[in-house]
Amino acid sequence: MKKLILFFLPLWLLAEAHIFVLHRVDDFRYPTTDISSKLLEKDIKYLLKNNYKIVKLSTLVKRMENNQSIDKYVVFTIDDSFKSFYKNGLPVFRKYHIPFTLFVYTESADKHYGDYMSWKQLKDTAKYGELGVHSYAHPHLAKLSNKQIIEDTQKAINSFKKHLGYVPDMYAYPYGEYDKRVKKIINRYFDIICNQNAGAVNNQTPLNDIDRIAITGDVNIARKLKIGILNVKNLQIKRNNNDIKEISGYIKYPYAYIYITKLGWKRIKTDNGYFDYKPDFNLKKYRNRVIIRYNNKIKTKLILKEE
User: What predicted TM-score, i.e. pTM, was given to this entire model?
Assistant: First the structure.
């Protein structure tokens, strides 16, 4: 029996869960960050019908830490604490008794910004899900000095303590933007950190670098659930200032598609699993994605343009 358990254990470790991120609900002024409540309800009904387990992020993390199976687990996270979620999204989650994790843009609550939830509404929301930190002023963290990042983070922590009496151990980067320096600083305060790099997660996923899949517009959640993890060994992205010179690594497939923002997709053959792509491409935007894909398996990396 012991040998049988050891044989199946790697399958548990390789099982993948999906974490979705949404922002606004029924706020049609902003289509790129909005989802309709009707579609959200349709997605939840699909997940329940197909026996997915919808849990809070903290629940999933606990299972990951304990090396328990996370197969068919799904988490809904909500960034920015927009009032449209409280008005139009929360009723859907309550209707189906679905938990969630909401990351709070704390300055908006402190200063009573019109499109955002108040602390009273956040307290009410926390009865049905859980809260995380989404910075204080929602800045582009990589553009700040170390001192400014620390000050913003400490203000968010103090605001949580003042209004709720506790500080969550979960953080989501504003705009999904970070680099090694930002990650190192935020990791001093939070063990669980979410990005916005599209991809699935498994028990090997670092808890301070959790991928999430955005759902907006007319999303096909069944298709999103097919996204898997592409294991890339020794991934190297070589840059010269704002030029991406070379992308290389090892996969177990004969080819891969590689995407760079504003450059598009390129099919690259591998040599015994090794790929070496030399785009020599100058980045056009501040926030850029490098995506390596084989069928439905992907690996996503965020690349910020230096300013």
Answer: 0.94
Per-domain residue ranges of the chain: 9-228, 230-304
- Going by CATH, does the domain composed of 9-228 fall within 3.10.28.10? no
Task: Check: CB of residue 98 under 8 Å from CB of residue 54.
Answer: yes
pLDDT tens per residue across span 75-134: 999 999 999 999 999 999 999 999 999 999 999 999 999 999 999 999 999 999 999 999
Mention every residue, 6+ apart, whose C-beta is less than 8 A from residue 4.
none
Q: Which one of 2.60.40.10, 3.40.50.1110, 1.10.390.10, 2.40.50.140 gives the CATH number of domain 230-304? A: 2.60.40.10
| Cβ contacts of 177 within 8 Å, gap of 6 or more | 140, 141, 142, 287, 302, 304
85, 26 contact by CB (below 8 A): no
Q: Which of 219, 227, 226 is nearest to 34 (CA)?
A: 219
